[in-house]
Structures are given as structure tokens and as C-alpha cells.
Amino acid sequence: MLARAALGFAALAVLTPLSAMAQAWPSKSLRMIVPGAPGTSPDILARTIAQYLTPRLGQPIVIVNQPGGGGNIGHGSAAKAAPDGYTLLVTSDQLSINESLFKDLPFHAVNSFIPVVQAIVSPQVLLVTPGFPAKNVAELVSYARANPGKINFASPQIGTVGHLSGELLKSSQKIDIVHVPFQGATAAIKEIVAGQVQMMFVTLPPAVGQIQAGTVRALAMSTVTRNPAFPNVPTMKELGYPEFDFGAWQGVFAPAGTPPDIVARLNTEINRALTTAEMKGLLAKTGAEPPAMTPEQFGKFMTSERQKWARLVKAANIKIEE
Q1: Tell me, what's the pLDDT at 12?
Q2: pTM above 0.85, yes or no
Q3: How far, in Å, CA of 246 to CA of 224, rounded?
């Protein structure tokens, strides 16, 4: 009995500082690390969340942009931060992809972080230049088979979901299409509009304006269900391409070891912000939706995402020269 009591007191001694920390939190400013430049999609998301959270938490939130290394610089910095609830990471699906692309990363996509909330998800949209002869995905595949090596597909960068989506179409349909990477989605879409590149998969928000203007054509979406912003654009899955059942996502993480009470409060507050009528309306205009996941659901999702992209990276033999 004395031994059990000693163990109980020892456990209480460990838990008490964490509990006290969570109750006193936050007592100073927070920082959100964004592994991208100002104006990128995760940066905009971080600033939007920070604007809402600041009055709710009673403390200012500083956005820290750390671009470079395909996101690895910012990810590594966040992983090394103290797990006290004062440093958060706002990033994208690149976190679940990079460990399959880079060797010897100083962090682990799952073990180095605690998922806080999956903030938004939007489909990858398959775009073609207006003059492209194929009017749908089946015609595109047929055209590619009849013209091997003559279709170029753009992506925002090597190793992005847009790149991997193109590789997935290439491998699943056994077609020969050529990857042309760019520095960002905006640059890639510009070349689609100009007709210099024939097709690309890209996350929906940066493509919305061009689709609505008719300067590009949207053939299909990568998510299982149609997007409310473009209900007439079919999904790849309903067209007979079951491999395409994913979207591009962005979310918030904390360093591993952050007290669960703090993670739970952040999850509640951020989900509350993203599911207000005003915020949902703003997101709907860009084709993004808030999935409103718990930390546990987001953690399971991250595990499946890592496994999925690892298989595709290996199958497509994608490598990045460091």
C-alpha cells in the first residue's frame, strides 16, 4: 500500500505542474510559425485564426514566417520549441509528404507534433488550358495515350500534392505526361492560362478566379463529393478514378508534449471560429471547407496521410536533390 501511495504521489507531482501551466495559460503572447512567406495560403490562414483568437485568449499572437526547404525550416523550428502552448505551427499537407521526399529530417511528422485542428480542406482541381482538345478526363487520358510525352503538367513545386496528383494520374492510367514544376501555384496557373503548359492539379482557392473567368477549364475535383462552389464540376471518383479521394488541407499543430488541456482549448476555439456563418461564407467563396475535427481525429488522419503519400512517392520514384 505504501508503494502504491508513493507511486500515486509521484504521478501527482508530475501532473500538477502541467495542470497548473494549463490553468494559467496564456499569460503572455503566442507565436504562430508559418513555413512559408507572407501572403501564402498557410500565412493567410494563420493571420485569420490569430485575429479571432487574440481577443478570445486575451494575448497577442505573433506570426513568424520561416520559408525555405520545402517547409522543413519552419517545421524544424516548431518541433524544437518548448511544449508550453506558446508556439504553434500553421502548415499544410506538405508536413505529411516531406519525410518521404527528404532524408534525415530533424523532426518527425507525427512524433514531433501534437495535432490541434485540421482547419480547412479543399479539393485539388484538374485544370486544362482553354484550347486543350480534351473536354473531359476520359478524353484527356485517351489523348495522352495517343500522344505520349507531348502533354506537360504543371505543379506549384516538386513534391506538392499537385505534383503527386499528376503522378497518380500518370501511374494509374499508364500515360506518359511530363512534369513541369514552378515556384508557386500562381506562376503555374499563369502558364496554364497562357497555354504554355496543358494541364495541372492545383488546390482550388488560387484557381477560383480563373475558373470563373473562363481562362482555364476545370475538368474534375479530387475529393469524394462535389465542391459546393462548383457543383457542376464532377469528382474524379464519380468519373471512374477511385484513386482520387483526397483534398489539400491546412492545419494547426503544437510541439509534442504540449499539455492536453491547452490543445483541447485551442481546438475548441479555432473550430468555433472556422464554423461561424461569416467564416464559412468566406471559405465557401474559395472552395474551402472546415472539417471540424478533434485532435484525435486529426492525428489518425495524419497517420493515414503519411502512409498514402509515402506509397505514391515510392511508386513514382520522386526524389528531391538537397
Answers
A1: 46
A2: no
A3: 7
Among 8-12, 24-28, 76-80, the minimum mean pLDDT is found in 8-12
Examine the pLDDT at 4 and tell me if it is beyond 60: no
pLDDT tens digits for range 113-125:
999 999 999 899 9
Both 74 and 104 in one domain: the answer is yes
Indicate the residue type of 261. D
E strands present in the chain: 30-34, 61-65, 87-92, 113-128, 151-155, 177-181, 199-203, 217-221, 247-255
Is residue 86 domain-shared with residue 72, that is, in the same domain?
yes
In a domain, 14, yes or no: no
Residue 192 lies in a domain: yes
> Terminus-to-terminus CA distance in the chain, angstroms?
58
116 Cβ neighbours under 8 A, 6+ residues apart: 88, 251, 252, 253, 254, 263, 266, 267, 270, 295, 298
- Asked if the bond preceding 26 is cis, omega within 30° of 0, the reply is yes
Residues 172, 311: contact at Cβ < 8 Å? no
Q: How far is CA 140 from CA 112, 113, 151, 175, 198, in A?
A: 41, 41, 10, 10, 10
CATH code (residue 151): 3.40.190.10
**What is the share, in percent, of the chain residues with pLDDT greater than 70?**
92
Place of cell 485540421: 118
